[in-house]
Design goal:
With about 250 residues, the protein is an all-alpha fold. It is built from 12 helices and no strands. Keywords: DNA-binding.
């Protein structure tokens, strides 16, 4: 039979047959007088065995040992079972994370530890969409840089700051409105008000350990996103908060 007939009978593609030849899983048959490969039922059986084993999860590289040595089956089954158990555990953990995100209204691109901060970001997006997107990106970047254990501390820190009171909402709107036409005095005044408002809350926020490269990368991201007046307000705010913490 020709390759197309064999492929149809076995439920594979002609391309798969060629690949099996290339990697040595399937012997090349002789050719008929017209130059076509001439397969027989032995090739069909071989391909059916290959399909069955790959369906169980045996990688192509591991097939020769099983196909040519019936005694290897037990060890292969043990390995497949262990791999399946690991995949089940991984999928079970993933489903638990998804359930947690759903129950807390979290954002799937945030680390699971920060799922509860999602609703705050959604609320902030209604007030200042660009700033909410900026903060979301900063959190994603920061969580990656500080690692999983420190991200749990970050979650505790954000919990202290996540309540959008009317006062915070008003400050957020003013910060979002900063731009090239904003007088420097107005920018400085807003930074002072932000520091005065957040300073008492920051006293109760747990410390989050970060590496030396983290401020540089966060600062670079800030340069890309915030305008000059917003960066100025952020610098003053940070200086005032750090000064008060000494």
């Amino acid at each position: 039979m020709r390759s197309s007939e064999l492929a149809a009978l076995a439920g594979v593609t002609v391309r798969a047959l060629r690949h099996y030849h290339q990697i040595g899983l399937l012997d090349e048959p002789g050719r008929s007088v017209n130059g076509y490969r001439d397969y027989d039922v032995r090739h069909l059986v071989r391909i059916l065995r290959i399909a069955r084993l790959t369906g169980l999860g045996v990688p192509l590289a591991g097939l020769p040992a099983v196909l040519d040595d019936p005694g290897a089956a037990e060890a292969v089954l043990d390995e497949l079972d262990q791999r399946a158990a690991a995949e089940i555990e991984l999928l079970t953990d993933r489903r638990a994370v998804i359930a947690g995100l759903r129950s807390q209204g979290g954002m799937p691109d945030l680390p699971p530890e920060l799922a509860s901060y999602g609703p705050t970001l959604n609320a902030a997006a209604d007030i200042a969409p660009d700033l909410a997107r900026f903060e979301r990106d900063q959190i994603v970047l920061l969580a990656h840089l500080i690692g999983k254990s420190a991200t749990a501390d970050l979650a505790c820190a954000l919990a202290e700051l996540a309540v959008l009171t009317p006062a915070i909402t008003a400050l957020l709107r003013r910060f979002a409105a900063l731009g090239p036409d904003t007088p420097g005095e107005a920018t400085d005044q807003l930074a002072e008000e932000l520091a005065a408002h957040y300073r008492p809350m920051l006293e109760h926020v747990p410390d989050v350990e970060i590496g030396a490269e983290v401020p540089c990368l966060l600062g670079e991201h800030t340069e890309y996103i915030l305008n000059e007046q917003q960066r100025r307000a952020s610098r003053i705010f940070q200086e005032r908060v750090e000064r008060a913490g000494r």
